[in-house]
Amino acid sequence: MQASNNPEKFVPRGAIAFFALLIVLGLIIWFGIYFLMLSRI
Q1: Mean pLDDT score, 32-36
Q2: So where does this one cross the membrane (predicted)?
Q3: Residue 17 and residue 24 in contact, taking contact as beta carbons nearer than 8 Å
């Protein structure tokens, strides 16, 4: 594996994808609970 000669262009795609997936999963859970509570009224 070759060492990168310009470290400024490094983008941690795995971490960004992980946090994006975490946010989406949180929103799905939140909206699930939200609509569940709306249906009980």
Answers
A1: 96
A2: 15-37
A3: no
Confidence of residue 5 (pLDDT cuts 50, 70, 90): low
Cα-based distances in Å from 28 to 2, 3, 19, 24, 32: 40, 40, 14, 6, 6
pTM, rounded to two decimals:
0.63
CA distance 5 to 33: 48
Residue 6 tokens read as 């310009």
Alpha carbons 9 and 26: distance in angstroms, whole number: 30
Helices (H), 1-41: 13-39
Specify the amino acid at residue 32.
Answer: G
